[in-house]
Amino acid sequence: MIRHLFIATLLSATVLANGLPAWGGQVPAAASTPDIPISHHDRVYAGEQFSNTVSVIDPEDNKLLGVIRLGEPSPTNFSPLYRGQVLVHGMGFSPDHRTIAVVSIGSNSVTFIDTTTNAVKHTTYVGRAPHEAFFTPDGSFHEAKKDPVVGREAIAAHWKPFFHGGPEWRMTVHDLFGDGERFAVAYTWEIKLKDGTWAGSPGCAIVHTRDGKIASWREYKA
After folding, report:
1. In the chain, which residue ranges form alpha helices assigned H by DSSP?
2. Which pTM was predicted?
């Protein structure tokens, strides 16, 4: 799960087209991927940080199909009793395109939305002021005691079997600190067993960012 990136935009749009982006070269597809004609099967998801919602749009006729409400607009969210998300912002696909991760800057959270039902599956809270959720094209993911996986496409392929039909999982971030474009993350990674209990182990990662995206993620586990 990609946790922390730092590019600010007022509107972040993600397009799903039959399980693939609507235009070749758009993240997370390769630049060589051919264009796919837009149809009523496609959806545009737009994160709106002022209303704290995600709009779902049919791009074929530019029709708003509905709104996924993750929080309330100002001034409601100024209340000390407010429990929703604040400054809904960046987005990222899971490798199988069945989940969108929606990052909220103000509430330091990532909300996972099922793209089949548009239902919120889970919200997890991370370190201060997260933004986008992507690796750089030449980024690397390096698990402890394994060879690194290099390139955004290779990283997506590496994680696809886990997201597609894999066990329910959760990652709890306990601490995060950094300087400039380098960060350290302490976390616990767990999977849900068949008996309903959770099993996992603590770990940490050294993360380097570049141009607001993750350039390298290297894990160290106990």
Report:
1. 152-163
2. 0.59
